[in-house]
């Protein structure tokens, strides 16, 4: 790999703010042009600088600037974003931190966890419409995922329950010599 500082176009004596600014600028350029190879090279260079320098992941976000984490979530780098979020000290975990954590959980299909983080974000900043909307949306899911009950739902009907019922019926039929699902 080339020198990571050259890839970002910064001096090896650059401050954390200069490195972050260069990364964000180049990342936007590569996203707009669709150059995923360059984006991956940029991400690796940035990660290497942060890991090897005096910029450990645990210290990058003490100022509660989550723009880089948002970018990673938007570009599908959920594991990287989660590592960075988990490195934020508990005293810095504000509404935005909880919202971003909930977004990662939602994208991974962990809807009950997402609801918990969205609810906490809304509690911490009740005036933020984005947090409220995310919380309301996660509570309105009525199918898919493993969250089976909506906010005002008394029903346990979901895709998971339908499949489970079908598999149970197939097992019972097979015990009696029949077969509902031939491949199981």
Summary of the model, kept short:
This protein is mainly alpha-helical. The chain contains ten helices and no strands. The radius of gyration is 22 Å and the shape is extended.
Report on this structure.
It is a single chain. The protein has 184 residues and is mostly helical. It has ten helices and no strands. It has helices spanning 4-8, 16-33, 36-52, 57-60, 67-74, 78-86, 95-107, 111-124, 129-139, 159-175. The longest helix has 18 residues, at 16-33. Residues 54-63 and 142-155 have low confidence and may be disordered.
Keywords summarizing the entry:
184 residues; 10 helices; 63% helix
What percent strand? under 5%
How many individual β-strands? Answer: 0
- Output the radius of gyration: 22 Å
Instruction: Please tell me what the overall shape is.
Output: extended
Order of helices and strands: HHHHHHHHHH
The N- to C-terminal Cα distance equals 49 Å
How large is the count of helical segments? 10
Structural class: mainly alpha
Q: Helical residue percent? A: 55-70%
Mean pLDDT: 79
Low-confidence stretches: 54-63, 142-155
Biggest sheet layout: none
Question: How are the elements arranged and paired?
Answer:
Layout: H1 4-8, H2 16-33, H3 36-52, H4 57-60, H5 67-74, H6 78-86, H7 95-107, H8 111-124, H9 129-139, H10 159-175
Helix pairs in contact: 2-3, 5-6, 6-7, 7-8, 8-9
């Amino acid at each position: 790999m080339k020198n990571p500082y050259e890839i970002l176009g910064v001096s090896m004596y650059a401050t954390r703010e200069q490195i972050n600014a260069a990364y964000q600028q180049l990342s936007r350029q590569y996203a707009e042009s669709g150059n995923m190879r360059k984006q991956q090279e940029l991400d690796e260079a940035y990660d290497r600088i942060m890991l090897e320098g005096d910029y450990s992941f645990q210290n990058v976000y003490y100022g509660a600037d989550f723009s880089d984490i948002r970018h990673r979530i938007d570009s599908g780098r959920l594991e990287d974003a989660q590592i960075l979020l988990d490195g934020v000290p508990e005293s810095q975990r504000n509404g935005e931190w909880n919202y971003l954590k909930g977004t990662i959980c939602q994208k991974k299909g962990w809807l009950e966890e997402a609801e918990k983080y969205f609810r906490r974000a809304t509690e911490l900043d009740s005036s933020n419409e984005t947090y409220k909307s995310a919380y309301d949306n996660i509570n309105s899911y009525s199918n898919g995922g493993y969250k089976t009950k909506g906010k005002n739902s008394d029903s346990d009907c979901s895709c998971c329950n339908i499949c489970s019922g079908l598999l149970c019926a197939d097992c019972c039929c097979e015990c009696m010599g029949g077969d509902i699902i031939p491949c199981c």
